[in-house]
Amino acid sequence: MGEAQGFGYVERADGAVVITHHGRVVSTLRGGRAAEFLDEVDDDPQLVMARWTGNYRRGNERTARQHPRNRG
Is 49 part of any domain? Predict the structure, then answer.
C-alpha cells in the first residue's frame, strides 16, 4: 500500500488539532480524540492522518473501475 501524502496538522493553544489535506481543513479534533491522535501521530504521520480522516485508498479502486456499472 502506498503512503498518503499532502496531510498536515496544527495543534492549537486550546488543545484542538486541525488536520489539513493539501491546505484544506478536513477534520478538527477536540478533547480526548485530539489527545489520542497526538499520541498516535508520531508513528507514521501521513498514514495516521489519512486513517483518521477516512481519506485513504482501500485497494479496490481498480476493481470498482472495471465494474460494468462504472464503465463509460
Answer: yes
| Residue 35 located in a structural domain | yes
pTM of the model: 0.69
Sorted by sequence, the CB contacts under 8 Å of residue 38 that are 6+ apart come out as 11, 17
Domain count, the chain: 1
* pLDDT of the residue at 36: 94
Secondary structure (3-state) at 41: coil
Residue 71 lies in a domain: no
Nearest CA among 29, 36, 25 for reference residue 14? 29
What pLDDT digit, counting tens, does each position of 18-67 carry? Answer: 999 888 999 999 999 999 999 999 888 888 888 888 766 655 556 666 77
- For 53, the enclosing helix (H) or strand (E) is helix 45-53
